[in-house]
């Protein structure tokens, strides 16, 4: 049985949450039953199936965010939060 596609908000809505320098704060829920991005109370919430071990959840978040923004994962840079649920990502372009 195929997994359903991740729920992704429009790229423009995600970019609107970034500050003037292109930094985007988000909260991550690793080990979730389904993957997706959600905008709630003016912030981005990310759910990924990957477990929080050896950076797998962080990599999954960056891949999911890149898919939502239609950019390569290499265009996103983690600034803060490698081992935290609260992450700060630099958006290029």
- CATH fold-level assignment: Conserved Hypothetical Protein Mth637, Chain: A
Mean pLDDT: 93
Major pleated sheet: 5 strands, mixed
State the distance separating the first and last CA atoms.
Answer: 37 Å
Give the overall shape. Answer: globular
Number of DSSP-assigned strands: 5
Features:
93 residues; Conserved Hypothetical Protein Mth637, Chain: A; 5 strands; alpha+beta; 5-stranded mixed beta sheet
SSE layout:
Layout: H1 11-16, E1 23-29, E2 36-40, E3 43-47, H2 56-69, E4 76-80, E5 86-91
Parallel strand pairs: 1-3
Antiparallel strand pairs: 1-5, 2-3, 4-5
Description of the structure:
- This protein has 93 residues and is of the alpha+beta class.
- It has a single domain, classed as Conserved Hypothetical Protein Mth637, Chain: A, CATH 3.30.1200.10.
- The chain has two helices and five strands.
- The protein has helices at residues 11-16, 56-69; strands spanning 23-29, 36-40, 43-47, 76-80, 86-91.
- A five-stranded mixed beta sheet has the order 2-3-1-5-4.
- The protein is globular.
- The mean pLDDT is 93.
Quick rundown:
This protein has 93 residues and is α+β, with helices and mostly antiparallel strands. It has a single domain, classed as 2-Layer Sandwich (Conserved Hypothetical Protein Mth637, Chain: A).
């Amino acid at each position: 049985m195929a997994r359903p596609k991740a729920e992704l908000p429009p790229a423009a809505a995600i970019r609107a949450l970034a500050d003037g320098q292109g930094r985007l704060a988000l909260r991550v829920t690793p080990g979730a039953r389904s993957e997706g991005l959600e905008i709630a109370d003016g912030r981005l919430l990310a759910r990924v199936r990957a477990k929080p071990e050896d950076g797998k959840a962080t990599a999954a978040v960056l891949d999911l965010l890149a898919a939502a923004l239609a950019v390569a994962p290499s265009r996103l840079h983690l600034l803060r939060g490698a081992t935290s649920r609260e992450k700060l990502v630099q958006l290029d372009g």
